[in-house]
Amino acid sequence: MLPIITSLVQTLAVNGLGLLAGAVQAKGKEFIESKIGARIPENPSHEDLIKLKQLEIEQEQLLLQYTLKQKELEIEESKLLAEMHRASQDNATNRWQSDMGSDSKLSKNIRPGTLVYILTAYLLFALLSAMGIDINEGYVKLLGEWGQLVMLAYFGGRSVEKIFEMRMHGLNKKEEQ
């Protein structure tokens, strides 16, 4: 059976049916026949080769259509994620502007106060640890993660928003041209 398949694969490859030849070699003749819905003769005639080439072209077109559709979906997903990120940043900016416009001292000072508290607690843990007092590592790790989160939100939030705005304005300018 193997020499027949090898002969068939060579015949297909020589006649410009490389995709079909590779598929037959990799998966087997019967498997490919079941997938394409056509019989592949052992010694294909010129008419058989033309029909097989047409089937191969149709298969390639389907694969290209699927690939194109997948890329379109990926682009759409990226656009949606970018829009969600922009909306999230806008909401954060609006909340912070609202807090700063409020008459309440608490709403104006909660973010800087949280940052000062976490940094002070982290410094206190470091000093206690330096004096030989054992601090549970879980608390130190948790406090460190909170510190990173608060610093990123406090110092990095506006920077990220500015970078995102610059990129969006750059894309809009390219689209206008």
Structure write-up:
By secondary structure, this protein is mostly helical. The protein folds into two domains: 72 residues, no CATH class; 76 residues, no CATH class. The protein has six helices and no strands. The longest helix has 56 residues. The protein starts with a helix and ends with a helix. The mean pLDDT is 77.
Descriptive labels:
single chain; 177 residues; mainly alpha; 2 domains; 6 helices
Beta percentage is under 5%
How many angstroms separate the termini?
62 Å
Number of strands: 0
Number of helices: 6
Q: Helical proportion?
A: over 70%
Low confidence ranges? none
Shape: elongated
pLDDT averaged residue by residue: 77
How much is the radius of gyration in Å? 32 Å
Structural classification: mainly alpha
The string of secondary-structure elements, in order, is HHHHHH
Q: What profile does the largest beta sheet have?
A: none
Question: What is the total number of structural domains?
Answer: 2
